[in-house]
Write a structure and sequence with these properties.
This protein is mainly alpha-helical. The protein has four helices and three strands, in the order αβααββα. It has a domain at 35-83. It has a three-stranded antiparallel β-sheet with strand order 1-3-2. The protein starts with 5 loop residues before the first helix and ends in an 11-residue tail after the last helix.
């Protein structure tokens, strides 16, 4: 027979809460939306409505239009950002 102390229960509580927090963080990181509306894309990229329209018109960013609402695939936005990534040039300090 084992006897549980208050300290044992406190330790269990701390470990359980840490496990729950980790599970929630993992769920948040993996629950990004597949389709974003124009407003969400503009906020994500910090661009104006006109710039977003230009990206659509010149074919830089694909979209789907349903009932007057434009949706953008998160993967296409990720590809656009990766394609336009600029490598940093290391600076040597003397």
């Amino acid at each position: 027979m084992e006897i549980l102390t208050k300290a044992d229960l406190q330790e269990f509580k701390t470990e359980l809460l840490a496990d729950i927090r980790n599970a929630l963080k993992f769920a948040d990181n993996n629950s990004s939306k597949k389709w974003l509306k124009s407003k969400e894309v503009r906020a994500l990229l910090n661009i104006s409505p006109g710039t977003l329209q230009t990206l659509r018109i010149n074919g830089t960013l694909t979209y789907t239009k349903i009932g007057g609402i434009m949706y953008y695939d998160q993967l296409d936005i990720d590809k656009l950002l990766t394609k336009n990534k600029v490598q940093a040039i290391p600076t040597l300090f003397k």
